[in-house]
Amino acid sequence: MTKLTIVAFDGTRFELDVDNGSTVMENAVRNSVPGIDAECGGACACATCHVYVDDEWTEKVGPPAPMEEDMLDFAFEVRPTSRLSCQIKMKADFDGLIVNIPERQA
């Protein structure tokens, strides 16, 4: 199991043990984390699972792919650390990953 921390906009921390190969979005939905709407179900066809990757993890997680970058154009308050949580697949290298949920989704 890999550790994932999702921080809701109100500061509530959800510390999860997750399976490698699952996405941050899947784990947020599975654990009823507020603020991840995931309207497209992980198809990278909306921006309702937008998160901010913690600064210390940004380089390791990497930048969004072109298709994800296009979808981020529709997200609320995009920052350099913005990603769609449906596009971040957990793996052993991401053990301890921290992401923050924005105030609202697009």
UniProtKB/TrEMBL annotation:
Q: Does the keyword Transcription apply?
A: no
**Pfam families xrefs:** Fer2
Its cofactor is: [2Fe-2S] cluster
Task: List the InterPro entries.
Answer: 2Fe-2S_ferredoxin-like_sf (IPR036010), 2Fe-2S_ferredoxin-type (IPR001041), Adrenodoxin-like (IPR001055), Adrenodoxin_Fe-S_BS (IPR018298), Beta-grasp_dom_sf (IPR012675)
Q: Which GO terms describe its biological process?
A: P450-containing electron transport chain
Q: Name one GO molecular function term.
A: electron transfer activity
Which residue ranges does the record assign to the 2Fe-2S ferredoxin-type domain? 2-105
Transmembrane found in the keyword field: no
Gene3D superfamilies the record matches: 3.10.20.30
Q: Which UniProt keywords apply?
A: 2Fe-2S, Iron, Iron-sulfur, Metal-binding
Q: Which family does it belong to?
A: Belongs to the adrenodoxin/putidaredoxin family.
This chain's protein is named (2Fe-2S)-binding protein
